[in-house]
Amino acid sequence: MNKREILAQDTAEFLLQIKAIKLDADHPFTWTSGIISPIYCDNRKILSYPKVRTFIRQEFAKLITAEFGAIDVIAGVATGAIAHGVLVAQDLGLPFVYVRSSKKEHGLSNQIEGVVESGQSVVVVEDLVSTGKSSLDAVKALRDTGCNVKGMVAIFTYDLETAKENFKKENCPLFTLTNYNALINYAHDKNFIRESDLNSLIQWREDPEKWGK
Question: Which residues pair with 34 in a beta bridge?
Fold first, then answer.
């Protein structure tokens, strides 16, 4: 395996061990969007495990440096990626801002919290990418202020075709620590799931909106 594949496997192992990702084809989960899924991801749990939290922070910092070089600001997507973004910004010695899903309805009506200026180069930190819509809304908000968003890093992606198309359309490179295929393959190899579960997870990935109906 190459370094990127080893990273994906190691990250998947941590996420499964701490149950940040749950796999259950017999008792599927319902997402906010209404999609019925055999997988559920809650990367906020990472923050409660210092060893895993440190691993994510360090690997994010390495990934950002390797893929984007020198940048001016780290931005986190509210709310799940705020803490991870702060940790990475601290590690890299960079300013940090976070981006709300929409402008506040009171006070200064900010959507971006913190100090960022037009022309600055930014990398966005996200905890999870599903369709990419909310993640790319943050990218758009930063670009609307004149920032040069060089790309995004995330802990995990479901690798949905919709997301790939959305990121391509917005010309926003996405790099993740692990991904759907790496995760389900590791889960199968290490007996976190049965063969039948693996087949169900593969089928879900092919057509999430029809799976389970």
Answer: none
The span from the CA of 89 to the CA of 76, in Å, is: 10
**Where on the phi/psi map is residue 146: left (φ > 0), alpha (ψ -120 to 50), or beta?**
left
Of 177, 182, 157, whose CA–CA distance to 167 is shortest?
157
So what's the pLDDT on residue 134? Answer: 92
pLDDT digits (tens, 9 = 90+) for 31-80: 887 889 999 999 999 999 999 999 999 999 999 999 999 999 999 999 99
Taken as a whole, the chain contains a residue count of 213
* CATH number, domain with residue 150: 3.40.50.2020
**Domain range for 26:** 3-204
Q: How far is it, in rounded angstroms, from Cα 155 to Cα 179?
A: 8
